[in-house]
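Thread title: Can someone regenerate the structure for this chain?

I was given the following input by a collaborator and told the matching structure tokens would be attached. They weren't. Posting the sequence so someone can regenerate them.
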Amino acid sequence: MDLKKIEEKRRKPFVELLARINRKGILNFIFNLFKSSSDELIDSTLKSLAGDVFINKSFKVFHIGDANYIPSYSSEIGFNMKDNNYIKNIDEMLEVIEKNKIEKKLYHSAPLALRFVASSNGFLSPMYGQDTCMAEIIMAKDTFGAKEMYSAIEKAMYALKSRMHWGQYNYLSANSVKAMYPALDQWKEVSNVLNSTGVFNNPFSNSTGLSN
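Best answer:
Regenerated them for you:
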């Protein structure tokens, strides 16, 4: 298998050109103007990327070319993979997305991305104690209603015992963090020692209940 040729084939010149143009925000403007056509636009883009199986190092697999440089928002939600419940969870998330589209005329500007991650023993890892399916929700910056859509999805996912990615767009609170992480008290015991002076406290840790 010639990996170099396959990698080059994955880069669609027209898609790359559009990504470069969008660095100026032109595509964002066009998308918001014709947002009701988002489903067709996303489907056609995915079909243009479809091709041969591509196996390589992770940084090459996940590198999608100039599209990486499009100014975007991103939120990521982790679902427990036990008993394949994550499939039902994703279906429910799609229902929220469809409801936003029908009732509020709010449309996503990028497809969902799924990745599968092994369990972690890190007390505050989204993968703590469970193999996890991470669903990434990407939207181009200035997508109409983006933050409202993120909020609706996140609130609905709390009931499914999902966990939010700490470093991406989220509305985490002290109560939601406490519900998500069963080892939170153990983490705080360690934090009380290592952060006894509160030097690592900040507005985010204050709002999520992680400060001493």
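Residues 85-104 form the longest helix (20 residues).
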